[in-house]
């Protein structure tokens, strides 16, 4: 993995692009177009256990109480 482009993200964050493309999920055309819906695998909802949205930006914040680095 390239350490220059590394951004921490929670291990519980998931979306279809991550399942299909794996670590290269950001190159999925649907992801690039903003057409993916994220969910938390801990809650199986679009919100994490802390009630905040499950999305790449907020689930890359190591200060969230539910954050566990991928």
User: Biggest sheet: strands side by side, in what order?
Assistant: 1-2
- The percent range for helix content is 10-25%
Overall pLDDT level: 91
Strand content: 5-15%
Distance between the termini: 12 Å
Global morphology: globular
Number of strands: 2
Description:
The protein has 70 residues and is largely without helices or strands. The protein has a domain of 48 residues. Helices cover 14% and strands 6% of the residues. Strands 1-2 form a two-stranded antiparallel ribbon. It is globular, with a radius of gyration of 12 Å. The two termini are 12 Å apart. The model has no long low-confidence stretch (mean pLDDT 91).
């Amino acid at each position: 993995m390239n350490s220059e482009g590394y951004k921490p993200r929670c291990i519980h964050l998931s979306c279809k692009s991550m399942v299909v493309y794996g670590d290269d999920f950001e190159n999925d055309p649907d992801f690039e177009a903003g057409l993916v819906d994220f969910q938390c695998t801990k809650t199986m909802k679009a919100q994490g256990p802390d009630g905040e949205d499950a999305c790449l930006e907020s689930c890359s914040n190591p200060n969230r109480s539910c954050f566990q680095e991928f």
